[in-house]
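RECORD TYPE: inverse folding
INPUT: structure tokens
STRUCTURE:
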């Protein structure tokens, strides 16, 4: 074995060589991570050789086991600067190596330290702040000791101490956020390991950042940092702001100018550049012109690097003990790390070692999305528009701007070649491709509508199964047309790469700064190539590991909407490879993880079932409420079943009668907008006449709807999917939840249908093994809207009689806590409901 391989694993070396070559053979500093044999098995480039390199190196020293950097000269003797760095790193117990550019020789300045000793959590220490007489009880109004919360802390401590994956169902009112935050904070401080807390909803993020974490900072005698991390695209890019402002006439479309000017003005005075700071959210096509993007970031070359909003946010994140993120951002990071695990150069989040997934019942859905791919017709057209667009007699876009900036560069033949490529080839080709996109996509839409075999004007989703694709491409000429279109997309991407190269050459020969426009064009080149690959995979792919489908917008209003998507059929192998095998401790928690008291459904869907029993721990912390006294479940059994004629009329009458009894103060939860709209239209006037204000999801944003609902305490809110969960309304404003039908997923949805087929193919019962458990989890979320504290009381009315009369209905009711349940005729049920509310 060569000496270097005693310190650095052979599989890591090619990635280091590539990073050094990518830096022009200049100095690159790497953070390295050791295995049990104290050999580097993973590296991450953290800085290049410039003035900010040393601070950047020291920034990551808390997480790294070793810092490695190359000497381009090949002379490996450490300089005085190297020895100074080594001295700083020694204080962090971090080793320091120097290598040559081919990474074939090594000089060990500081030998690797022994593996860090882990300091285990002390359960009593973690739980003591929540005990009676503890610091939290002293400042928390209405404090009550919750045994379930203390038990959950014990399980979380066990998972951290023993590197376990813990699934914890914590009922409403358990106090689960404090139960995982206290151990996570102490672990991070004791062991210098960053912990990520991931949620699905903004509401829970805001609760953590604005309420729970400030409470702990106030109560605990601990210094710790917790940061809310947002995705890069949430921030304005100052380079883009400056570029568009400087080339406003060339870059800004006439109809966008006023909004762009306002955004430019805001970005120049904003402190953090986050889109959430805007009083009004800009249109997506406007924001993306200014938004930060990973493939258009010039990084250290950017003149705005020091003041960059994204870098500023990352610096805060890199110093934090706790990162609060959403599932989408975390899975974007996990997917990227999984894809490039050899180098681990993911830049979405700083390194982290332990993960807490709150609202973990969403993990399969989010992972399915992020381990897949997608492209839209609109997205393609936006890419063309960023390159070139004509408005009246004016031309706009990156290509005209590039031609204009280089027109008098004095770069001779290269300059003339660029002008020719832009004006004679690319602009005509983009104009023609835009037209071809409309023609091909319109024709494809018409053909897909024929194949879907559905009448009406609603949105449609068509799976690209072998039978469908054979029929779709039965006409060889039609397939050739689309293949030719995809080839032209690829060729456009390649031609744009030529432009990028010419701009780089002109910049090298002149004093022009063309780096900004060059990287924008280069990024779009890559996106067009990727778009062609995704389209080809969705329309022509045939492997069985992925689900492919096309979504068609509602006709005729959104007939131009066309989405092409691909997602993995199962995500459990990916969850194991990207999450459980990489991170020692993973906590998965939610109020709804079990079906009939069992974690088996969740375990099978997200890969927990593949873990050894000694790696897994499961725990149910029931809600601290007396549901039998606080809740009445009312199920009229003489209404038609949802798929029978007369259901909509009957359920409308039942809703009106229930709301008259409860005097409003209710959520009416639907599973479809069509039924919601129909019943809202029918009942709105009648309810207003008896003094019940009617609110409806859609039009007004969610926050404003809930604000009005809480203020108008006799109101009723008609809502669908997003209001089944993540909404907290305490007290008399909400005393009834009306569930119109059991929340089964639409069976012909591409992902649902494909997973049904897989279960049946393996000899299972897809309805009982997948459809019912999935609906039960959603049903439990809807039920959970009602009781949020011990003084709440109210009724849950279920107008889908299948829950009482079908065998599978028992799974729904047995998954709820014991309640006073009334079934029977509508007359009987509503008379009992009147008595309940009279009390």
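DESIGNED SEQUENCE:
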């Amino acid at each position: 074995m060569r000496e270097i391989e005693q310190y650095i694993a052979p599989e890591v070396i090619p990635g280091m060589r590539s990073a050094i070559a990518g830096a022009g053979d200049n100095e690159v500093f790497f953070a390295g991570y050791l295995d049990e044999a104290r050999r580097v098995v993973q590296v991450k480039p953290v800085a290049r050789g410039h003035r900010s390199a040393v601070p950047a190196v020291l920034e990551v020293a808390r997480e790294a086991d070793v810092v490695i950097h190359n000497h381009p000269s090949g002379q490996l003797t450490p300089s005085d600067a190297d020895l100074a760095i080594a001295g700083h790193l020694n204080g962090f117990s971090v080793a320091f190596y120097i290598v040559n550019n081919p990474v074939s020789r090594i000089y060990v300045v500081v030998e690797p330290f022994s593996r860090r000793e882990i300091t285990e959590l002390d359960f009593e220490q973690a739980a003591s702040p929540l005990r009676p007489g503890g610091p939290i009880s002293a400042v928390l109004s209405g404090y009550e000791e919750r045994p379930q919360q203390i038990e959950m802390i014990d399980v979380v401590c066990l998972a951290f101490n023993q590197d376990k994956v813990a699934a914890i169902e914590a009922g409403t009112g358990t106090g689960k956020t404090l139960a995982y935050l206290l151990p996570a904070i102490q672990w991070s401080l004791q062991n210098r390991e960053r912990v990520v807390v991931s949620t699905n909803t903004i509401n829970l993020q805001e609760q953590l950042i604005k309420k729970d974490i400030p409470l702990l900072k106030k109560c605990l005698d601990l210094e710790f940092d917790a940061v809310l991390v947002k995705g890069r695209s949430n921030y304005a890019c100052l380079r883009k702001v400056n570029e568009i402002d400087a080339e406003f006439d060339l870059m800004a479309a006439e109809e966008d100018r006023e909004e762009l000017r306002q955004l430019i003005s805001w970005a120049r005075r904003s402190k953090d550049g986050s889109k959430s700071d805007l009083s009004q959210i800009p249109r997506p096509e406007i924001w993306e012109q200014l938004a930060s993007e990973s493939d258009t970031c010039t990084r250290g070359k950017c003149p705005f690097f020091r003041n960059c909003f994204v870098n500023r946010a990352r610096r805060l994140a890199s110093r934090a003990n706790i990162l609060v993120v959403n599932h989408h951002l975390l899975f974007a990071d996990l997917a990227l790390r999984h894809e490039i695990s050899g180098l681990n150069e993911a830049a979405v989040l700083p390194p982290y070692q332990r993960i807490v997934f709150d609202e973990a019942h969403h993990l399969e859905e989010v992972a399915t999305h992020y381990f897949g791919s997608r492209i839209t017709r609109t997205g393609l057209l936006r890419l063309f528009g960023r390159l070139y667009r004509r408005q009246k007699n004016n031309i706009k876009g990156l290509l005209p701007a590039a031609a204009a900036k280089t027109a008098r560069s004095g770069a001779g033949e290269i300059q003339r070649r660029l002008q020719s490529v832009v004006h004679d080839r690319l602009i005509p080709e983009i104009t023609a491709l835009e037209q071809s996109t409309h023609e091909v996509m319109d024709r494809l839409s018409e053909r897909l509508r024929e194949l879907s075999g559905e009448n009406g004007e609603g949105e449609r989703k068509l799976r690209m199964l072998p039978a469908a694709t054979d029929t779709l491409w039965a006409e060889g000429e039609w397939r050739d047309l689309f293949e030719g279109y995809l080839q032209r997309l690829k060729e456009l991407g390649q031609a744009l790469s030529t432009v990028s190269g010419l701009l780089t050459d002109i910049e090298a020969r002149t004093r022009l700064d063309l780096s900004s426009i060059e990287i924008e064009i280069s990024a779009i080149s890559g996106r067009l190539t990727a778009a062609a690959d995704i389209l080809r995979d969705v329309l022509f792919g045939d492997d069985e590991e992925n689900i492919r489908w096309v979504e068609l917008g509602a006709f005729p209003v959104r007939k131009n909407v066309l989405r092409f998507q691909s997602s993995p059929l199962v995500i459990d192998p990916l969850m194991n490879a990207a999450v459980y095998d990489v991170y020692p401790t993973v906590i998965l928690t939610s109020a709804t993880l079990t079906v009939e008291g069992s974690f088996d459904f969740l375990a099978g869907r997200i890969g927990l079932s593949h873990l050894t029993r000694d790696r897994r721990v499961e725990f149910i912390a029931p809600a601290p409420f007396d549901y039998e006294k606080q809740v009445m479940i009312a199920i009229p059994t003489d209404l038609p079943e949802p798929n029978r004629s007369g259901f909509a009329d009957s359920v409308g009458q039942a809703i009106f009668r229930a709301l008259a009894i409860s005097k409003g103060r209710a959520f009416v939860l639907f599973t479809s907008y069509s039924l919601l709209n129909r019943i809202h239209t029918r009942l709105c006037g009648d309810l207003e006449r008896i003094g019940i204000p009617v609110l409806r999801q859609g039009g007004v944003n969610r926050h404003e709807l809930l604000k009005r609902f809480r203020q108008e305490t006799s109101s009723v809110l008609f809502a669908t999917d997003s209001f089944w969960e993540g909404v907290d309304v305490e007290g008399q404003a909400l005393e009834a939840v009306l569930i119109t039908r059991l929340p089964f997923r639409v069976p012909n949805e591409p992902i649902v249908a494909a997973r049904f087929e897989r279960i049946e193919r393996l000899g299972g019962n897809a309805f009982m093994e997948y459809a019912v458990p999935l609906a039960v989890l959603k049903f439990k979320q809807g039920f959970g809207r009602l009781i949020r504290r011990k003084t709440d009381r109210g009724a849950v009315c279920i107008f889908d009689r299948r829950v009482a009369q079908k065998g599978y209905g028992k799974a729904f009711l047995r998954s709820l806590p014991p309640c006073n349940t009334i079934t029977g005729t509508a007359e009987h049920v509503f008379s009992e409901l009147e008595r309940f509310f009279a009390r």
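NOTES: The chain has five domains: 3-110, 123-225+320-370+584-611, 235-308, 391-568, 627-838.
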